[in-house]
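User: I'm putting together notes for a lab meeting next week and I want to include a structural view of one of the chains we've been expressing. I don't have a solved structure, so I'd like a prediction I can at least talk through. The sequence is below, exactly as it appears in our construct file.
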Amino acid sequence: MSEMNQTIKLEDQDITVKIFECVKKAAEVTHSALRAAQKASDAASAIISKDKEDKWHTLQKYLREYGPFINNTTCFTGLYVYAVDMSFYNDTGLDALDRQLQTVIGIVYLNEALHSAAKETFKQCLKSQLKKNNLLTDAQLRLI
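Assistant: Thanks for the context. Below is the predicted structure for the 144-residue chain, given as C-alpha cells.
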C-alpha cells in the first residue's frame, strides 16, 4: 500500500443511490450501458470477492482513473475523493468497501454515458429521470 490511497466521501448516500439508478436507466435507454458494464466488471467482481485487499486494490484502481471525474461532478453527485492513510484502510469493513465499489460502478456508467456518441440524448434522458424523481434542483439540473 505504498501508493496514495483514496476513498469516496458521500454527502447523502440515499440520494446518491437514487441518482445512479437514474444514470443507469438513462444509460440503458441510450445504449451506452454495455460499454459501462464492461468497464465496471472488475468492480462488480470485487464486490463478490470476500478478500478485503482485493476489494481495496480494485477500488484504488478505479479512484485513480475516475477520481478527477468524481471531483468534477461533486455538485451533481454529492461525492468527492480524498486521500486516506493506512489506518483508514485498517478500520474500513467489507460492507463499506462494497458500498464504495457500488458507487464506483455508478460513476463508470455516468462517465461512459456522458462521453458516448449519444451524450446529448443521454443528458436529456437523465435530466428527465432526475426531474421526475425530484432528486435535483433546477439549478443543479442546468449544470448537467
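A couple of points you could mention at the meeting. The beta strands are 5-10, 79-84. The radius of gyration is 15 Å.

User: Perfect, that's what I needed.
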